[in-house]
C-alpha cells in the first residue's frame, strides 16, 4: 500500500512544483525542473523495490538510452515550434521513438550508452540555444494545474503497471519519456505561444547532463551497493552536475 500511495502522491506534487516554478521564474526554469528525473527516479526506486536491483539497473540503462531520445525531442520541438503544437509534438514524439529504437538496437554497453547520452545532451544544448524572451504571466483556467497533475498520475500508474510485461530495458525507456516536460510545453505553447514552448525545451536540454549521470550511477551502483547508497549518490552527483551545467550555460 505504501508504494501505491507513493506513486499516487510524489509525481503529481513534483509536477505541481515545476508548474508553479514555471509561472514564477519562467518557462526555462520549469523545463529544467521537469527535465530532471522527478518522475523516472521514483519509478526507478519502485522498480528496484518491487522487481529487484538487477531489474532496476537494467531499466536504468534503458533510461540512459532514452536520454539520447530526450535530446532528439528537445531539438525537434524547438525547431518546429512555430508550425504549431500538433506538428511539433508529433515530430518530437517520432524523433524520440526512432532514436530510442536505434540506440536499443545497437546493444551498447553501459559505458557506450553513457558516452552516447552525453554526446546527444551536449548537442541538444548547442542546438537549443538561449533566446531573448520576455516571460509573460497569462491567466489560465483554475483547472490547468489539476489537469496536469491528473495526467501525470495516470501516466506513472500505467508505466509501473506494464513494466513487468515489457521488460526492464523497454520499461526504462518508457519511464524516461519526458511526460512532465511535454505537459508543460503543450500548456505553455497553447496559452502563451511558441517561444515559451521553446524555452521549456531549452530547460529540458539543460537538464540532460544531470539526468544522464543520475541514471549512470544507478545502473552501475545497484548491482554492487544498497539502494540507499546508490540512490543517495545518484542524487548528489545529479545535483552537482545540474549546478555546474547552469553555471556554464550562464557564462556562455
Give the helix/strand layout.
Blueprint: H1 2-25, H2 27-35, H3 40-51, H4 53-80, H5 85-105, H6 110-127, H7 144-166, H8 168-175, H9 179-191, H10 194-221, H11 227-251
Helix pairs in contact: 1-2, 1-7, 2-9, 2-10, 3-4, 3-7, 4-5, 4-6, 4-8, 4-10, 6-10, 7-8, 7-9, 9-10, 10-11
Characterization of this structure:
- By secondary structure, the protein is mainly α.
- It has one domain (2-130, 138-251).
- The chain contains eleven helices and no strands.
- The chain has helices at residues 2-25, 27-35, 40-51, 53-80, 85-105, 110-127, 144-166, 168-175, 179-191, 194-221, 227-251.
- Helix 1 packs antiparallel against helix 2 (27-35), helix 2 (27-35) packs parallel to helix 10 (194-221) and helix 3 (40-51) runs antiparallel to helix 4.
- It is globular.
